Amino acid sequence: MDAKMQAKINGFMEEVKTRNGHEPEFIQAVQEVAETVIPYIARKNIYSGKNILLRMVEPERLLSFRVSWVDDKGDIHVNRGYRVQMNSAIGPYKGGLRFHPSVNASILKFLAFEQVFKNSLTTLPMGGGKGGSDFDPKGKSDDEVMRFCHAFMTELSRHIGPNTDIPAGDIGVGSREIGFLFGMYKKIRNEFTGVLTGKGRSWGGSLIRPEATGYGTVYFAQSMLETKGDSFEDKTVAISGSGNVAQYAAEKVLQLGGKVVTLSDSGGYIYDSEGIDRKKLAYVIDLKNNKRGRISEYAKKYKTGKFVSGKTPWEVKCDIALPCATQNELDGKNAKVLLKNKCICVAEGANMPSTPAAMHEFQKAKILFAPGKASNAGGVATSGLEMSQNSLRISWTREEVDEKLKWIMSEIHDSCIKYGKEKGGYTDYVKGANIAGFVKVADAMLAQGVI
Ligand code: NDP
């Protein structure tokens, strides 16, 4: 990149930092986009003088509210709730809710910003948003989680709707929480609509939605491998996380003939040299979803498994790495170890799990690297399919939804190739995803004028 372009990017980032100085995750997400999109904008006259990216980094609306609730002992607690309505140029705001003690405005703005690009890539008409709370569901009873969700929705219900903003799950928000949230929305608004996605099957949910993010990540990795005439067959795969995304990524890897050797949670990771097969995976799913246990228990149950406390799985030798836990969980040092161990493909199931240093290592080594906004878009895409089914008041079969998901993932892959293929044949999927996501939103913003 020439010095003039770098100065332009630096100038833009200075402005973003001045306004959002205390938001490191948000600045990190914007920087990654700026580095690829600003040079593209500079080559396209239609965007000249329109300040499109500057408009895109400012949320259309950022809501913050008090959530008071009572625990089982009768003690009163106060948490902070948020909804970031980032961009509605191509459709109603759409994006998950995260309940985790680390949640703050920076994390939700980074997630909402990424969501705008991701939703644009899906081919579906969805704007971008994200929300959540610093509430920690861990260790809470079902009744406490219900009271919190009800209190949260009492305020959130004023700001969302099936044509306005459609939240879904994310870390700490699964089918149990979506149920409680939906129940309260329905009661307050006296309407049964598709205002949330990730709903239960009997009350408007879509088949394949629980599986979609994990499956989609593996479909995307499969498309990348195919460009090299390769596949998942007999590959050793390291996966982080053991929640929704990790579970179904593991399931799809097994279906495609790969061997999953790790899973993790915030306590550490488990390594099973013989592979986590279907039976062992079923145990993990029950442990995490029903018993709400810790991944360390795997090593007690299976002699082939060993638990490594306080570490991430990236030190394990693997062909393919699927980070599916959380942001910045794979740093530059981890990336170097993966590369030394001959890892050929990294597809992000989580949002921004690779630090900028890790990403640059992968790009320098020219291995297959997919950013989350492309590879994990299957979740929100299937949420979009759930919205369509709700509006049409119909329900597609498992095969129909899976086919649509596969088609969408391959369209996203094609878009990344279109904008990311470089001379010499290497595809920069980060650049491809950022520019493809940007173009659709930017063109809609141009058409709608300065608002
Ligand atoms: P879950 O809550 O189901 O699972 C999260 C997993 O990540 C758990 O194993 C959790 O461990 C682990 N984890 C969370 N925080 C940390 C941390 N700080 N360090 C190490 N491990 C951690 O969430 P999901 O599976 O839904 O989400 C995982 C990622 O995928 C997130 O980045 C999310 O934004 C992204 N994503 C999710 C989508 C979805 O459809 N669910 C869609 C697209 C992206 P522990 O139990 O110890 O907290």
What are its keywords?
five-stranded mixed β-sheet; seven-stranded mixed β-sheet; 3 domains; binds NADPH dihydro-nicotinamide-adenine-dinucleotide phosphate; 451 residues; alpha/beta; Rossmann fold
Provide a descriptive summary of the structure in words.
The protein is α/β, with parallel strands linked by helices and 451 residues long. The chain has 3 domains: 55 residues, no CATH class; 132 residues, 3-Layer(aba) Sandwich (Rossmann fold), CATH 3.40.50.10860; 163 residues, 3-Layer(aba) Sandwich (Rossmann fold). The protein has 16 helices and 12 strands. It has a 7-stranded mixed β-sheet, sandwiched between helices. Strand 3, helix 4 and strand 4 form a beta-alpha-beta unit. The chain is globular. The mean pLDDT is 97. The structure holds NADPH dihydro-nicotinamide-adenine-dinucleotide phosphate. NADPH dihydro-nicotinamide-adenine-dinucleotide phosphate binds next to helix 8.
